[in-house]
Amino acid sequence: MKAWQVERLGEPREVMNLVDAEIPVVAPDEVLVKARAVAINFPDVLLARGEYQVKPELPFTPGLELCGTVIEVGSEVANVTVGSRVVGSKIGLLSEYSVLAGSAVFPAPEALSDVEASALFIGYQTGYFGLYRRAALQPGETLLVHAAAGGVGTAAVQLGKAMGARVVGVVGSAAKIEVATKAGADVVIDRSVDDFVTIVNDLTDGNGADVIYDPVGGDVFERSTKCIAFEGRIVVVGFASGTIGAAKLNHALVKNYGILGLHWGLYTTRAPELVAEVHAELTRLAQAGAIRPIIGEVFPFAKAAEAVQKVATGTTVGRSVVTIA
Question: Which of 28, 38, 63, 93 fits 74 for a cystine, CB–CB 3.0-4.6 Å?
Fold first, then answer.
């Protein structure tokens, strides 16, 4: 089979190579999946650079989520059948074939294409856990979503609307306004032109946003503390800016807001039953048309390194997906 490998650390286009590899052997508790589509995530960039919190030994295969067809099932796996179309997540999926734990694959929603289904898992799971479980977003509250035209941001916008929130999206350029609007944002702010702090405070009569969803970090996080509501919640889900924002805990105390971290991957090991429950709910929302991954660009398998590098630039909108024939 063909698989992409990172053989040394650096920029994705420079360190990712397409190589020949053996089709992996299935253990009793695993399934073998033939990939149909693999969605690209910003952590793929960080993995290639050696900057992700998990650092696999070199060489390794990037790729974190897929949609594919099960072609072999281990003897101890009872919940998956050969021929099933599934989605799943782990490091190492930019490959024609992958083995995953039987407990780590789930039925792909019928309402979504292979490309869309490949982009459902990580972004929407992160959004659901962050907004619903951690921040307890309520109908009628104001949700501020940073990077609202990106893959993580568009998922959060859609989930916020599904929960009945008023959603304000922040984007980095005028070219991204349309995408955030398509995702369902009620108001979209181009932070390259306007001050999101001023606009959010004006929109809320000075009260601020009840929940702020931040995959950017850095100055964006620090500025967000200027427009968070009384008893508001800032959900920290990443640092796409490359800088970790400094939390001023005295300010959080005086203004009475919470800072919540969300590392979705921890749920897969500490509370996998919740991951299954959330997938069932996301499937229901997808079948009802309430959520649908917004796909920005689709790349052939031979151009996977280009796809990861483009995500690294921060210029992509929606999800970038690699298809595998």
Answer: 28
User: Three-state DSSP class for 165?
Assistant: coil
pLDDT digits (tens, 9 = 90+) for 102-122: 999 999 999 999 999 999 999
∠ Cα 127 300 73 (to 5°): 65
- What is the C-alpha to C-alpha distance for residues 146 and 53, in angstroms, rounded to an integer? 22
Can you read off the two tokens belonging to residue 121? 């898992």
For the chain, what percent of residues have pLDDT higher than 70? 100
Tell me which long-range contacts 219-223 makes (C-beta under 8 A, separation of at least 24). 219/243, 219/245, 220/146, 220/170, 220/191, 220/245, 221/245, 221/247, 222/246, 223/196, 223/197
C-beta of residue 218 within 8 angstroms of C-beta of residue 242: yes
Rounded Cα–Cα distance for residues 167 and 216 (Å): 17
Mean pLDDT of 114-133: 97
Instruction: Note whether 40 and 4 are within 8 A (CB).
Output: no
Q: What is the CA radius of gyration of the chain?
A: 20
Reported confidence tier of residue 277, pLDDT bands at 50, 70, 90: very high
User: Taking Cα atoms as reference points, which of 75, 12, 9 lies closest to residue 42?
Assistant: 12
> What sections of the chain are H helices per DSSP?
12-15, 42-49, 114-118, 121-128, 151-163, 177-183, 196-203, 218-224, 249-255, 264-270, 272-287, 304-313
